[in-house]
Amino acid sequence: MARSLILFLSILVIRISAYSQPKIDCNSKAVQDSLVEVYSKKAWMFGYNHPQWEASWDSLLAICPNVAMAYREKAIPYLKNGDYAMAFKLEDKAVEFDPKSWIAYRGFLHCIFTKNYEKALVDFDHAAKLAPKAYIMDHTYSFYRGLSFLGLEEYDQAEKAFLMDIAQQHEKNGSNDIHFNSLLYLGIVYYEMKDYKKAEKILKDCLRLYEQLPEANYYLAQTFKKTGNAAASQYFQKAKEYFQQGYKINEDNEVYTNYPKQISLSGIDNK
After folding, report:
1. pLDDT in tens, 67-76
2. What's the alpha-carbon Rg for the chain, to the nearest Å?
3. Cβ(8)–Cβ(22) under 8 Å?
4. 166: closest CA among 194, 128, 127, 206?
5. In the chain, what are the domains?
6. Is 86 exposed, middle or buried (0-12, 13-18, 19+ CB in 10 A)?
7. How many angstroms separate the CA atoms of 259 and 163, rounded?
8. 3-class SS at 74?
9. What values do phi and psi take at 51, rounded to 5?
10. For 184-201, how does the pLDDT look when each residue is reduced to its tens digit (9 = 90+)?
11. How far is CA 259 from CA 1, 21, 56, 181, in A?
12. pTM for the whole thing?
């Protein structure tokens, strides 16, 4: 009898405690930000290659399953390790709960990681409506639209996109330098369009900003080769030397995946 009473009282206390807990408002940005701050610290104690990284974000999602950032952070190891199917399932959830914050990022992933240019264009068109003239991963949305059209061999559209990208940079930075990769890819577009005069000009402009950029030297060499300019061999040699010295296009994620038209040593040798 005594044991039954103790058990009854214990259950009653647990129920009272449960009902006395304040209800968490998972739709509150302040609540979501606080959860992300707490569980981010826990996750980074281990790093994204440790199982506790995912477990930390799962703990947050057990409290509030609508926190977009948690899905995006949970996707990181899958993305870095090449499991794109799982990564995009999680990225899709992030976009579902906060499209304004994450749809452009998903477009970037489609463009750079999976080279799914059609999906990238859809995402960037939507992102531009939600946040006009915004940037993602150090570039305008038009930059990635240009890369996507370049990948689809729609060169007229690629040219328009890169010109919009450059115009937006001018608008933001005034007289500051344009990003050298914007010039690189615009030069490549002109090369693909067989407008070698414009390709030469733009690629030389790129090299004024970053003379060791292997891709700019390589595509300038290809341009000279097409026009019969003897300087082609000089620039092929520069591309090879700078590549061997470790110069790259300097994009944060190119350690995980190649950017469009990015060259290799064998590609230079097989020119």
Report:
1. 999 999 999 9
2. 25
3. no
4. 206
5. 195-271 (1.25.40)
6. middle
7. 19
8. helix
9. -55, -30
10. 999 999 999 999 999 999
11. 74, 51, 32, 11
12. 0.88
